[in-house]
Every structure is written in C-alpha cells, then in structure tokens.
Amino acid sequence: MKMVKKFSSIQEVRNSIDKLDLKIMELISQRKQLVEHAVKHKNKEQIVDQKRIDDILHNLSIIAEKKCLPKSMIIDIWRSMIKGFINYEKENFDKIKKD
Questions:
Q1: What domains are there in the chain, each with its CATH number?
Q2: Which H helix or E strand runs over 25?
Q3: What pLDDT digit, counting tens, does each position of 35-92 carry?
Q4: CA distance 31 to 12
Q5: Which letter does DSSP use for residue 99 in this model?
Q6: How many CB atoms lie within 10 A of CB 86?
C-alpha cells in the first residue's frame, strides 16, 4: 500500500500516524483475544512454543523483504510482541483457563 497523499505539515503527518497507531492497537487487542482462546487449548508447558515462534519470525522475514521493510526492525517488533504475550499468558494462565 503506497501513500498517495501529500502532507502540508508535520502535524498533518503526525495526526495520520496517531490514527494508524489506534488501528494497530485495535489489531493488538484482537490478537490478545486470540491468544486467550489459544491458552484454553494449552497447558503451562505449551506457553512457549519455540518452533511456532521460529516459524512466525521466518515468515515475517520473508514478507518484510517482499514489502521492502527492514527485516531486523520487523523481527525486533515481533520478538518484543511475542515476549509480551508470553509474559501475559504466564501471568494470566490460570485466570484465562477458568473463564
């Protein structure tokens, strides 16, 4: 997806970034809900699935390259997100399983 809009000021650019950030937050919220559904099908030993993590990062690396995105940046972002969700699962595992 290419940007076709011409921005007339830095504030206009920042406003667009802020709107995009809200969309990203909504996607992260949806991902959290899916993680919670996944927890219901796991035991505690399955919280960290290194093969799944490796597969995700490998696939994202390929997609990043196709989209001309810096692979290291994409991998760093996803590693951080995955780590955050693993911590969330560990901290909330019992509560999520009960619900």
A1: 11-98 (1.20.59.10)
A2: helix 10-39
A3: 999 999 999 999 999 999 999 999 999 999 999 999 999 999 999 999 999 999 999 9
A4: 29
A5: -
A6: 15
